[in-house]
Write a structure and sequence with these properties.
By secondary structure, the protein is an alpha+beta fold. It has two domains: about 30 residues; about 120 residues, no CATH class. Helix content is about 20%, strand content about 45%. The strands form two sheets. Strands 1, 2, 3, 4, 5, 6, 9, 10 and 11 form a nine-stranded mixed β-sheet that branches. It has a two-stranded antiparallel sheet with strand order 7-8.
Length: about 160
Amino acid sequence: MRGVRWALALGLAGLGLAGLAACDAAADDAANTLAGSVSRVYPLGFEHTRARLGGTELAIQYVAAGGAVPVQVVVRLADCPVDGPGPVDLTACGAVLGQRGASDLPAFRSGALRLSAYAPTPGAPVVGEFDAVVQVDTRDFAVRGTFDTALEAAP
């Protein structure tokens, strides 16, 4: 009888640890999200996010299996220098674009980016959210996302 109780206790402890690991994974996943009505006409699935800083732009990328970038938030740094946290008017100085296979994300119309953590230093945390309106013919669709990643220098 004692052996059964120990086996049961160890099994429950193992389930508890597995549950904690699942909660941690869910928390990581919750920090990087994509959603919106555009999902009716364009698939939003992705595996991870990355933030890249190049000479002329900052890009927040949602990367799918195989390396495709179905959604990318781009800030043109010449139009809107970004050196710390704060809002960025994507309509004035950026875009939301992407491609999956032969399909392009619908055309960008307007949007906003909010950086809650950012420094233009490789390895620095890049945390925030964006929302945008994209258009197919005369129909508007919403796309929004959250991200929590580290800044990389663009290759």
